[in-house]
C-alpha cells in the first residue's frame, strides 16, 4: 500500500516556508509603497491651471491699445468689474459726466457714487468681451469707443448685455462717459421724436443719479 507523506503544520512553519512567506509580504508592501510614491509624484507633477497665458493675453491686448486708451481701459475694466478703487477715477476730469439708460452723474463725486454702488447691488459683474476703437484728434484728446459685452448677477439672476461705451477725452482725462446699452443711443430731447419724452427720460436718470449719490455718501471713497 502506497503511503504519501504530507507536510505537517509544524513543517510549514519551518525556516524555508517562513522565508518564502515573508518575502511575499515584503514584495506586496514594496509594491504598495511604490504605488503611493508614484501617486504623490504624479499629483505634484500634475499641471495646475495656467494663468500665465491669461496674463499674456491681457498684456497683448493692452499692447494693441492706442496711446489715448492705453492708460484708460484698465481702469474702465475695474469700474465695470465691481472692484473700483479711488485711483481708478483719476482718469476723469473733475467736471466729467456719466450717463447710461439708468442714471446720469455730473462731476467726479457723482461718478464715484455710480460705480461704487455696483458692488453693493451686484453679486458679480465684469466686462467679458471688448474691442477698442479710438480716434485721437490731437495728443491726449479724442474719442474712445468700447464695443463690449457685460455680465452681471443680481439677486440670483444673470444679466448679459451688449453695450457701446463712448468716452470723450481731453488732455488725457475723460470729460464724458456714455454707456449705450444694446448699442442704442440714449433717449433725450435730441434723440426722440417727441422732445417732451426725451426730457422726462433725462429727468428720471438725473433723479436716479442723485438718489444713488445720497445713498453712497456723496462719492466718499471706501476705507478698504
What is the secondary structure topology, with strand pairs?
Layout: H1 9-12, H2 15-45, H3 52-63, H4 73-80, E1 92-99, E2 104-106, H5 108-116, H6 118-121, E3 124-138, E4 141-154, E5 157-170, E6 173-181, H7 195-215
Parallel strand pairs: 1-6
Antiparallel strand pairs: 1-2, 3-4, 4-5, 5-6
Helix pairs in contact: 5-7
Quick structural gist:
This is SnoaL-like domain-containing protein. This protein has 224 residues and is an alpha+beta fold.
- H/I helix tally: 7
How many beta-strand runs? Answer: 6
Shape: globular
Q: Assign a percent range to the helix content.
A: 25-40%
List the uncertain runs: 1-7, 9-30, 36-57
Region (Disordered): 38-65
Protein name: SnoaL-like domain-containing protein
InterPro entries: NTF2-like_dom_sf (IPR032710)
Biased composition (Basic and acidic residues): 41-64
Amino acid at each position: 500500500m502506497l503511503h504519501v507523506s504530507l507536510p505537517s503544520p509544524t513543517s510549514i512553519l519551518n525556516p524555508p516556508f517562513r522565508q518564502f512567506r515573508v518575502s511575499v509580504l515584503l514584495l506586496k508592501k514594496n509594491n504598495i509603497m511604490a504605488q503611493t510614491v508614484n501617486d504623490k509624484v504624479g499629483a505634484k507633477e500634475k499641471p495646475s491651471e495656467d494663468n500665465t497665458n491669461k496674463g499674456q493675453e491681457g498684456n497683448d491686448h493692452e499692447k494693441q491699445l492706442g496711446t489715448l486708451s492705453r492708460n484708460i481701459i484698465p481702469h474702465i475694466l475695474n469700474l465695470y468689474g465691481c472692484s473700483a478703487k479711488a485711483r481708478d477715477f483719476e482718469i476723469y476730469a473733475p467736471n466729467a459726466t456719466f450717463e447710461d439708460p439708468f442714471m446720469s452723474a455730473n462731476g467726479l463725486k457723482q461718478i464715484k457714487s455710480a460705480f461704487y454702488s455696483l458692488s453693493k447691488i451686484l453679486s458679480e459683474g465684469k466686462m467679458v468681451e471688448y474691442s477698442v476703437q479710438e480716434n485721437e484728434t490731437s495728443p491726449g484728446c479724442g474719442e474712445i469707443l468700447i464695443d463690449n459685452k457685460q455680465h452681471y448677477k443680481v439677486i440670483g439672476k444673470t444679466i448679459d448685455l451688449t453695450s457701446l461705451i463712448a468716452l470723450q477725452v481731453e488732455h488725457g482725462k475723460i470729460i464724458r462717459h456714455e454707456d449705450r446699452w444694446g448699442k442704442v443711443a440714449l433717449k433725450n430731447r435730441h434723440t426722440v421724436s417727441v422732445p417732451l419724452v426725451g426730457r422726462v427720460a433725462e429727468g428720471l436718470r438725473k433723479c436716479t443719479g442723485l438718489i444713488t449719490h445720497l445713498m453712497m455718501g456723496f462719492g466718499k471713497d471706501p476705507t478698504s
